[in-house]
Amino acid sequence: MYLVYEHIDRGSLRKVLYGDEGSLELNWRSRVKIVQGIAHALAYLHSDCSPPIVHRDVTLNNILVDSEFEPRLADFGTAKLLSTNTTSWTSIAGSYGYMAPVIYI
């Protein structure tokens, strides 16, 4: 069994935001593109996948950015598949200092 990764030129979003040359190139248009891309990825995982997937570790280190500032969501090590016919609570997982918000309906 093999795991194949796509080469991502700029690395993680943390490197792009806080690195030496990355923050100089990251204008507002690029920032909006990154936010929209991650929102689209999360919407796809939660609404379009069957069963739905909860990532549980969306951090700057787990968002990779290519040369065109297109984001890629990475590191699904703590992801969880949810059953579509039940209400599920997940245990705390992910990077230290991050916890997904709780939504009450």
Automatic annotation (TrEMBL):
Species assigned in the record: Bauhinia variegata (Purple orchid tree)
Lineage top rank: taxon: Eukaryota
Name of the protein: Uncharacterized protein
